[in-house]
Amino acid sequence: MSDELLWITVMGQQVRVSIRRAVRASGDEPVAPTVPLVLCNGIGASLELLQPFVDEVDPAIEVVRFDVPGVGGSPLPKLPYNFAGLAWFLSRALDELGYDRFDVLGISWGGGLTQQIAFQHRRRCRRLVLVSTGTGSLMVPARPGVLAKMVTPRRYRDKEYAKQIAAELYGGRLRDEPGLAGALLHDQSRVGSRRGYLYQLLAGVGWSSLPALPLIRQRTLILAGTDDPIIPFVNARIIARLMPHATLHAYDDGHLGLVTLADELGPLVSRFVLAE
Amino acid sequence: MTSTKLAGLNQAGPNQTGPNRTSMASQAAPLDALLVEAARGPLRRFLPDSATAKWAVSMARQPGATVRRLRALGGEAGRIALGSSELAPDRRDRRFTDVAWSQNPLLKRLVQLYLAGGKTVEELLADADLTLTQRRRLQFQVENVLAAIAPSNIPLVNPESAKAVIDTAGLSLVRGGRQLVRDLASSPRIPEMVDTSGFKLGDNVAATPGAVVLRTEVLELIQYQPQTDEVREVPLMIVPPTINKFYAIDLSPERSLVEFSVRQGRQIFVISWRNPDARHADWDFDTYVRAILDALDAVEEITGSKQTVLGGICSGGILASITAAYLAGIGRQDRLAALCLAVTVIDNANAGTVSALVDRRGAELAKRLSRRKGYLDGNALAEIFAWLRPGDLIWNYWVNNYLLGKRPPAFDILFWNADTTRMTAGLHADFVDLAMENKLLRAGAVTVLGVPIDLKAVTVDAYVVAGIADHITPWENCYQSTQLFGGKTRFVLSTSGHIAALVNPPGNPKASFRTNDENPADAKAWLREAETHQGTWWTDVAAWLSARSGDLRPAPRELGTAVLPPLAEAPGTYVFDK
């Protein structure tokens, strides 16, 4: 059986959520929810994209994924939003799901959201994992050719196009196997509207975590690919330098390393989350 | 099936307006018209055009009549001012039920003026020398304008709104204003009709236990868990509409056709269509029929039955009929035990307003627009439909949500109604062509998967059910299906409209249905000789199916098979895609 899917309604907005319930190592018996790991996805990506990673996370960890409003299986929000508003909205959603404390993992765009959540909900957010992410509008940017391809959701809509640009955009393993991008981005994914993608882009406009990083005191694991054309590796170093309790782990892959290298990073993240 | 199902739902809204009810019959908006209109957007219908000009010319040509009408209005206005007018709103008109509308002298006069003005405009329209198309178009515009300018829509003038402002120290207007901004911000630009927060898929809607036993790119097939010790040998597979989600037949427990059928000892399989997106623009009849055949294979594999009853609802009924004809065409009709069609129109001839609403150019444009986008947006369909019933679906909620600052009601049908889906451009084009040229009536006019489709070749028994108050799939058109298939057809006419016909659980004292053993060519003749039965057609179809579903055998314990193991619990995963 797959993970549990549900819709919750928060402030009139429906969100599609997937929960993988935690099980004891010994059997299939569900355990009382401990601290769940909430995954914040990259721009334009539906929660299915993270499946290979979820499958590698220790079964004792409850994993919560969601589609940002306007993306994947969640309906378009009535109005644009920013990271602060979305972080607040998510905290309400986690209330609704019955979680008081949580760990958050964010990849790329979702990493920005994760930093905002950690900053804004410091009591509730216990640990954070930042993957292939930067500090928002004040960061070392990608090359213009890469950025230009990021401003449209075309790679999610056109499988052939996704394969064609995979190497240049995502780097790492996809340089040798661009066909994999088609499978990762398309086979299980849901595509939201163009407007949903636009709202996501807008949420990041003018936003930067740079000045606030020293104030994020939670234990943090930073994962960064050494060959990431979208978020150059140096950004991870900057974040690690500025956050007081961060550890940096570099891996040998590209922007989508969390899924293309899931067998290595899944256990690594699990150890970090489960550590005393 | 579509967002349109609200047609049959007169009892549903919180406080409906009454007056448009009677004229609705002439405003029926059949599916094909909606499919064309939705792609083009509602605005077009509001713009003045040649019909408006023709009306003006017509009024000017017969100045005598026009002046007489206006003078009558003037006289009435005088009586209203003096307080001697007898004019009063229809008692069924829920807009003006508050006592203040009759007791407060100012408000009373305001309502009377509104009614007198509206009556005059309608009379002027009736006098005018117009073609049917022009008349319908103008009627649409006039009704919308009249519904919009009703005094009950004005904040603070509406006594309920004024009271709410006092009770909440103005907060009701603040809340209402906020909701207005939210609703206008994105499509569908209509007031929110349902509070969705109380509903949970798989919990209190679409909650009948079962499992997904097949997942393809296009569909998930749900097998429902038997709830009896023994089940009928021959399974029933239902093809739902391709607009909105499948769970119109599995709403709240005790209101679910699926649950009812499972409890009758039937093996039920239901298709849950993928909510397609721009990537799936090319999916057309071939894709969907192929998907139904895949599902049929799975049903046979799981049940071991060589035969299946194929059921279809609305646009799903069209697909089911085509699939049946395809099987007949390749000589494999032995795989079907019977065909069951609910609120399905195959013959579009004389579907009332089609000719008035849709012309060939419009249809071509509609297809082009959806092709450009890759799909027809379900929200656009919802919007079109709402503007066809402005009193019930717009202004009613305008008052409730914005003037009174209240949340819309929670109601399972409305929840389902708001859960719209997209339709691929390919399927949209195929449906529009089918309707415009009434193709399924001519053998071989449609070719699916390389096989010419001839409905006459379908010789299994068929059960056809329609709702007498259905504005989407008018019952007379549904009835015509009895003349199309080659086998014996039982036609059943239920009370109620499009969706209420489906959601028709036993226990409603007002429910009844009609049957007739003969199927004359003319629907009216059928109705004259028909016999009325108390109760719901659900029990009638249950008996009909049981006679065609073979013997009883022990119910399977497990769902699926080793080859097709359960993949997810019902209602599956595709149903969660917005």
From TrEMBL, chain A:
Single GO BP term: glycerolipid catabolic process
Gene Ontology molecular-function annotations: triacylglycerol lipase activity
Organism: Nocardioides cavernaquae
InterPro entries: AB_hydrolase (IPR050471), AB_hydrolase_1 (IPR000073), AB_hydrolase_fold (IPR029058), PHA_depoly_arom (IPR011942)
Ranges of residues in domain AB hydrolase-1: 36-258
Superkingdom field: Bacteria
Gene that specifies this protein: phaZ
Record protein name field: Poly(3-hydroxyalkanoate) depolymerase
Pfam families: Abhydrolase_1
